[in-house]
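queue> pop job 88
queue> type: inverse folding (structure -> sequence)
queue> payload:
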């Protein structure tokens, strides 16, 4: 699936402590825009940018996660829009007061032939009581995420059907543990991006039996916990 995780295959190695190799392992992901390092004397700074606007940075052994927003620059009257303006939304820095928006609480987990995204509470449920988030709502609410989200969803759908799970086969959706880990890491990054949005209160990400509650003020700790769990699981697979 184009998302090698060599670092996760290494036994007894903390994924966060080997930053250069971690970033290199993500470069071929279809959702990753760039992985780079910048040398400023000491120490070295590393960045990972996804194509939908999530940036993971490492400096002095510390991880930081921000959301990058690209908006069209204001051109002169009568001139076409030719450039975009980039804003880094850092949830560790207080933002000026804004008009309150709807605050969504989501659950993100795979369920065949659904969008995989659900409302955690009934506050935003449909009139019939369904808490499933419609694909059209995802597209209109998060257009910058749309293509990459549904590409990620399609990987699971295709694997599910290929294994015959839709016909009742009691087998693993991903026979290869590393393929499963790659897909789950992609999903966690999506959950982090959603959690950093102003209109999202939090995301409960449950790729398997364990759930991870991702919120803006704790996104780094949750991602570290998740990656360590993945590393342990792969180690147990041999």
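queue> result:
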């Amino acid at each position: 699936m184009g998302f090698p995780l060599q670092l996760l295959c290494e036994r007894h190695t903390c994924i966060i402590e080997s930053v250069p190799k971690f970033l290199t392992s993500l470069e071929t992901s279809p959702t990753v825009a760039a992985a780079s390092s910048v040398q400023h004397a000491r120490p070295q700074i590393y960045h990972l940018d996804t194509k939908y606007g999530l940036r993971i940075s490492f400096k002095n052994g510390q991880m930081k996660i921000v959301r990058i927003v690209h908006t069209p620059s204001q051109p002169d009257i009568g001139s076409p829009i030719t450039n975009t303006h980039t804003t880094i939304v850092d949830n560790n820095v207080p933002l000026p007061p804004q008009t309150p928006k709807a605050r969504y609480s989501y659950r993100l987990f795979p369920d065949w032939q659904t969008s995989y995204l659900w409302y955690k509470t009934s506050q935003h449920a449909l009139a019939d009581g369904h808490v499933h988030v419609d694909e059209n709502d995802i597209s209109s609410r998060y257009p910058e995420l749309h293509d990459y989200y549904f590409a990620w969803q399609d990987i699971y759908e295709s694997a599910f059907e290929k294994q015959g799970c839709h016909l009742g086969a009691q087998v693993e959706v991903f026979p290869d543990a590393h393929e499963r880990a790659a897909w789950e890491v992609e999903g966690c990054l999506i959950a982090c991006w959603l959690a950093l949005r102003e209109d999202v209160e939090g995301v409960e990400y449950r790729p398997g039996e364990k759930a991870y509650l991702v919120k803006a003020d704790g996104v780094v700790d949750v991602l570290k916990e998740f990656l360590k769990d993945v590393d342990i699981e792969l180690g147990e697979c041999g």
